[in-house]
Amino acid sequence: MEKTRNFKRVYVWEIPVRIFHWINVLALIILVLSGFLIANPPAILSSSEATNLHSFGIVRFLHFTAAYIFFFIMILRVYWAFVGNRFASWRAFWPFTKKNWNNFWHVMKIDIMLMNDKEEDVTKISIGHNSVATLSYIVMFVLALVQVCTGFALYADMSSWWLPKLFSWVTPLLGGDFMVRNIHHTAMWLFIFFAMVHIYLVFYHDWLEGRGEVSSMFGGYKFVSEERIKHAHDEDEVEIKDDKEIVAAK
Amino acid sequence: MTTKKEEKKETYYDSIIKQGYSRRDFMKFATYITAYMGLESTMVGQVAKALETTHRVPIIWEHFQECTCCSESFIRSDHPIVADIILDKVSLDYTMTLMAASGHQAEAAKKATMDKYKGEYILCVEGSVPLGDDGNYCCIAGRSAKEILLEAAEGAKAIIAWGSCACNGCVQAASPNPTNATPIHKIIKNKPIIKVPGCPPIGEVMAGVVVHMVTFGRLPELDRIGRPKAFYAKRVHDSCYRRPYYDAGLFAETFDDQNAKNGYCLYKLGCKGPMTYNACGTIKWNNGVSYPIQSGHGCIGCSEANFWDNGPFYKRIAKVPGFNEEGLADDIGKVAAGVIAGGLAVHAIAANVSKRKELKSRIDRGKANEHNIDS
User: Fold this and answer.
1) Which among A164, B146, B214, B349 could disulfide-bond with A152, CB atoms 3.0 to 4.6 Å apart, if both were Cys?
2) Where does the protein end up (chain B) (predicted)?
């Protein structure tokens, strides 16, 4: 029987990345659900007068609030692409390198077409995002910009704040509210498709690689073969040492 | 009606008084039109003064591919001075549907105005211009609409594009646009153009735009696509009296249900008010009597570009851009989501088959370690 591989815990997703991820998840769920309700509101029966009800107004309020959060958290993530670690950096997303394309075809072969390498080479396993994932995130980023532009364009005339008004050029560019709304609605479906594939692939990697893919977005750690890490830092020893120091200090 | 030629320059006030209106009528008109133009009440004096002192601005009104509903709307704008003075008696030097002269006489009158007031007259255009087949789909007096438009625009101070035809092509420009009906701003690039869309535009809006032009001698404040902000800055939805029902989530489901009778919001019946910029909710129609939504019918978005091609009037759907009516975004989305879910399930099964050795090996190693747990 093969020997169990030794793994090292690597801090991959820093806190701002994880915060971005989960707030984004929450905002998107609210945006999609309230978006569907806005597009096709349910028939409610009420004997109450309009003055006493504000149900649709609340749905819209949630949509707009989530939209603002979605937008600001996106700005935070872009900022973090310049100050974050190597896995969060914009360099990780830059598609025009040979290394990136080699990884792209490797992922396509192994994970999408499900072929097997004759000999496993651990250095080919991505630690952060793989190249197919980064490409999909670039697409999602563009789509998010489309949603921000079309959404704020539709919202601009209801707002007196300058921020949504910055997007009022979008409506004439696209030829009116009809087209803006159609694009906004259609692009939403692409987010749903992305989420389906994204969640599946996270499970897929966790199931087949066992490196903590799912939990990494909570704790931030992934597990990487020891042989990939030069001067492997034995964290257990450090922890024991730290504990001793703490005890000694007391 | 006249094709006036007299040399003496009259002010608007002169002609209004000459028509038998009192000073009081005139002041009422000035107040009313100031309000419609969206100006402050302190501006009434300025408007009255401008009408008293400015000389009439000649107007040439061209008709191309259109149904004349804009003219109809204009002459029904609810203050008589609008129709009487601004349109008929004072300013309109050429409009083939309303002028008494016809044939060569009318064309000669137009030519005379164009020569005499070169660079001063306002050109009003009602209708789109067909560019297909050398413009032969719309010919007047043996000349194509494009030729006439270019000639008339040459010496114009500004152009007012009346109605959806002149602003965005309206129904004749709907897909497949057989005559290649083209809005004015795509043909004339070197003149200021005011777009007053709508099918037709509201008469008071038209009057407000004309009066603004003649009294202040400049264009009203326009939005990004050239519509006067005073009338087109808000969606019909934002000034709709049924808006509280929308915010409350109370919608008519069909045109004959109790909700419709209660006057609930027509959003789910395809009302395009939330996507349409116009003043229908505030100025209303037919002397402020009503407007479509008040009459129980949703807005069809007639003042928006391509309103004919933007999906059904009585349904609220999202089209996938680039597809026809079949391409309902949600239908496609549900099918695609199903296909993706199926594909992922197949991929998951295939992955477990293809990677079975690796999986088994890892599970075995994991189990072995589990047996050997020490402490």
Assistant:
1) A164
2) Cell membrane
